[in-house]
Fold this sequence. Notes:
The protein is 38% helix and 16% strand. The protein has ten helices and eleven strands.
Amino acid sequence: MALCFFFFFFPFSPLLFFISFALSLGDTFFFSLPIAFFQIKKKTEKKIKTKTNKKVGLISEFRKKRKNLDLIRKKKNSLHISVVEIVDRYDEGCVPSNYSNDKLAYIQSSLTNKSCTRTLSVPKLMKSPVFIYYQLDNFYQNHRRYVKSRSDKQLRSMAYERETKSCDPEGVSVDGPIVPCGLIAWSLFNDTYGFSVKSKMLEVNKNNIAWDSDKEHKFGSDVYPKNFQSGGLIGGAKLNSSIPLSEQEDLIVWMRTAALPTFRKLYGRIEEDLQANEKITVVIHNNYNTYSFGGEKKLVLSTTSWIGGKNDFLGIAYITVGGLCLFFAVSFILLYVIKPRPLGDPSYLSWNRSPSGHPN
């Protein structure tokens, strides 16, 4: 009660009391107080720094995880990327209207203009390299006489340039043996393509379009074209007589004959991306004669995935075989349920019969 009375009448007495108490403690209090303050400050800063580092660590870890997820997504997209393909049949569209009823006369005449301009639209982004193929339909490269009309010895070495027995009727010309001889080489595809986007020419890379094994082992580096396409009837493209056959990749690709009447062969590559909805202008020189046998010509631009290009044959084959297996499985089950096979009676076995022939 007395203490409350003292504080009431002397409002500064608590302060005076605190000062007097501090003075009674001596110099120790005044020296320890700032030290304690700085220690508390350091601890507080350390805690703040630790929390900040934790936050920075969590942010960096989150960014790393996000980056890893983006990489995984990109890998998945690359694995599941669909093949983008553009197919354009041009053999009919490139024939002038005045020759629409006589296409054979158009292709055989040397006076007609064979150039043709087509416009292709890119449906989706086509990542480089974009492969260029020409496709022929109803062309039987697998015909026995056609396949045998070549000389492998002549193709490998110039020492065998006169080996043309199997090449008839394109084995020998008036000036000597034909190199390369045979109907396969004589009918070499000779349409050409030029590509541009927004008036900018797209370069077509025609290097390394043939198999290395063919270039190294089947076509000699010392074999040069000789008397090729020099007769009265020209079958297809001509060859540069100053370039060895091992470097004539268009010929090497063509000489690997197809097993089916519809086939594609690699023409070259466009080694830059084609953006979606871009318009590609294609200048075609329509020289190859498919009109005499009712064939078709198509230009194909295609990308590839990790399992290769687009091919419907395997899918159709798997579905067909799987459907047949399912059909036979259901048929045998129904046969077993409707008319089950009776179980054999072991008493009719020969070793279970009596000498008289009757079951025991």
